[in-house]
Amino acid sequence: MTIKDIAKISGYGISTVSRALNDHPDVSQETKDKIKQIAKENRFVPNSNAKQLKQQVSNCIVILVKGSFNLFFASIIEQMQTHISRLGYETVIHYLNEDENEVRMAEQICKEIKPLGITFLGGNPETFRKRFSNIAIPCILSTTSAQSLSFENLSSVSVDDVKCAKQAVDYLFAYGHTHIGIVGGNEDISCTSGLRFAGCRQSFQEHGQELTDQYFEQAHFNISAGYEAAKKLLQKNPQLTAIFAMSDMLAFGTIRAISDLGLSVPNDISVIGFDGIELANYYCPKLTTIRQPCENIAVSSAKMLVGAIHGTEQAQHLLLDAEIIEGDSVRSL
Amino acid sequence: MTIKDIAKISGYGISTVSRALNDHPDVSQETKDKIKQIAKENRFVPNSNAKQLKQQVSNCIVILVKGSFNLFFASIIEQMQTHISRLGYETVIHYLNEDENEVRMAEQICKEIKPLGITFLGGNPETFRKRFSNIAIPCILSTTSAQSLSFENLSSVSVDDVKCAKQAVDYLFAYGHTHIGIVGGNEDISCTSGLRFAGCRQSFQEHGQELTDQYFEQAHFNISAGYEAAKKLLQKNPQLTAIFAMSDMLAFGTIRAISDLGLSVPNDISVIGFDGIELANYYCPKLTTIRQPCENIAVSSAKMLVGAIHGTEQAQHLLLDAEIIEGDSVRSL
DNA sequence: CTGAAAGCGCTTACAG
DNA sequence: CTGAAAGCGCTTACAG
């Protein structure tokens, strides 16, 4: 069933059928009704390949997600999708592995499906610095700041990772802890864990401490990595009374590790996480964590991207605040 | 950059360029090399719309996922994807809301992108009964059995939900519990929770009990629903000493609810889950659960679908076994 | 308000 | 081994 068939059945020409189906204003209502009726009866679905081949641009916005599983991203994606479709665009979600290059993939997607814009979740600014100049459509980096880059078609929406991580560690200091460990983080400040690490370092310095190897253990942002890292950390530094885990998943792994060592949270060791996913609130103990403003990130990203697509908005870098959610995983010393 | 441009640059005709790029055997190696080199230099990416419009069928397999967020599905999707691409096909993932009709969506997708096959995650057999006859390509229902249906192009891979749920409740009885509650489930045996509920009922009967309203509370399969349902259940039936939650997420919500009521798991109340997601192993307490064989479901689904696409396999319904993972959330009475 | 015609970028029978 | 031509299903300037 193609528009040609509908043209034949209806007696109209194919151009009129096309216009009627797309609700062009210059087709009489009567004609539209007839044609739409026939399309409906025959369960006509337009061939999107033909449509897009002809139109050169699609109506779609791509959400490019790095890291296939991440509850934090999940809730953002969901809301983003809802919002984008409310604004009248289709959305295509594409997942990449951690080791794939998101910008290269974006280049390919641009050539293949010609989207109007792209939002990146979990991208690395360094990758953007190197290759993003190949991309011409409006893009937005969500949950990571692109402030340090200055592409005129790249905006970003995120929390200030340095500040928020500092906030987390400050919180532990404020509760009287002086032996604080960090799960996650590294020296590379171009990525999220590097930025959060920098925040930790600041907090340490302000409290007259130096953040040495003794106090942190790197980990990818998943639960089993958190478990392993926490175990190592507690082995090399048994005096710790509190741990900042750089994501809630890391925090869950950390708490499990602490339990497996025969210790309890928060009685022996306090734990604070980062992200504020729904599960944090249902974990036992309820996790104290830095809650990123998911809805705001999702909605702002969608709005800014659509603004940029309309050409009404310039690239900008939105830094949002996070709030501390107090659970039962931190106690004062 | 199109193949026309490459034809111009290389001096060959566009048909030769097309054939070279697609590695057709009737193009000399030399020509192929030259053309591919030029394509590479110019970062040529074929326009997939044009390609598919012409080819009429794509090379892709669609994974249609109902319910946008579900850690259990997540790990299956990931493995399925890996496996499908290893078998030489592209994969497109499409998420639907709970209230959308998966089969109707599949019909549309068939017309739009003409996939070779579809795997459904989280589909409802009843929906298939009504509309699936409209679909002509090989499909597979994963994690839910389509045994009761007899479409020659619809296979399924799943555990036996009735049996596995019975296993869970039997386990609690075996540990001496006699007041067992169920979180989730309903009378509609066309869906997963209905099947599991039927298994619970069987177990109750075999142990000389009747599964009345007093013993269960319905809940959608998410953590907050589990929390609410468990609270209600314990309110209306305070004598319970054990609960079977029909998914791990429900179990987490249940455990949190128990804690909030000032009781402890497993000392006051034992809890067993269903699915066996990674998180279950990192929850506190470690969750005892019925582990579905994710890899096997993923791999078998992929294999069976590809077999059906090749026309070498008939529709079949694979029922896999689940195993009990013993955590620390059940104690003997 | 409607239609005939061109063309989007590709593939593939057909001819050489 | 290579090329000219037709055609996939749509949209849209152009003409009426």
Automatic annotation (TrEMBL), chains A, B:
Q: Which domain of life is it from?
A: Bacteria
Keyword Ion transport: yes or no?
no
Coiled coil start-end: none
- Which CDD domains does the record match to this protein? HTH_LacI (cd01392), PBP1_LacI_sugar_binding-like (cd06267)
Q: What is this protein called?
A: Transcriptional regulator, LacI family
Can you tell me where the transmembrane regions are?
none
Stored Pfam families: LacI, Peripla_BP_3
Give the UniProt keywords, A-Z.
DNA-binding, Repressor, Transcription, Transcription regulation
GO molecular function list: DNA-binding transcription factor activity; transcription cis-regulatory region binding
Which InterPro entries is this protein grouped with? HTH_LacI, LacI/GalR-like_sensor, Lambda_DNA-bd_dom_sf, Peripla_BP_I
- Residue stretches making up the HTH lacI-type domain: 1-55
